[in-house]
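Q: I have 74 residues here and want to know how they pack in 3D. Can you give me a structure?
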Amino acid sequence: MPAYMRVFPRQVEEESDSRQKPTVRVRLGDLFPLLAMAHRGNYLWLHDFEDDEICITPDLYELLLTFRSYRPSA
């Protein structure tokens, strides 16, 4: 017997009040290997978080800006 697809109406998400508040602190050193592995494997769940914001220190932000424009010489 064939499976039938059921279509449900899209629910309108509430504004920012429905967002989860960040409460878990994680070391970047623990996070990097997991994110790299998920990125290499192109895991779809990683895309669910692309619009999430993180809070970083000003010195890390400056370093990332510099690194983004860095072009290694041959």
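Q: Anything worth noting?
A: Residues 38 and 45 are 9 Å apart (CA to CA). The chain has a mean pLDDT of 84.
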